[in-house]
Design a protein that fits this description.
Elements: E1 2-6, H1 7-12, H2 14-22, E2 26-31, E3 34-39, H3 43-62, H4 72-78
């Protein structure tokens, strides 16, 4: 999610913006309405978050019982016209 922020606001609220970046937000800094910079998390952080999310999903799936009588192919075909 990208959020546009004016340059003056970015200067006065930098600490707040950095906390947002830590949570995954992306900011476009503007000067007189024109985008001049982006404040984004580093690439390595995104990759680590993705790997952690995949592992969390796998752990969740291991704790659940499969649904009996569920035919995924039939459900998939049902959605096609």
């Amino acid at each position: 999610m990208k959020i546009a922020v004016g340059s003056y606001e970015a200067q006065t609220k930098l600490a707040e913006l950095l906390r947002g970046v830590q949570t995954g937000k992306r900011y476009t800094i503007t000067l007189r309405g024109e985008a001049v910079a982006e404040l984004v998390p580093p690439q390595g952080t995104q990759r680590q978050n993705l790997a952690a999310a995949v592992e969390d999903m796998r752990a969740f799936m291991r704790t659940r019982q499969p649904v009996a009588g569920l035919n995924l192919q039939a459900l998939n075909d049902e959605g096609r016209a």
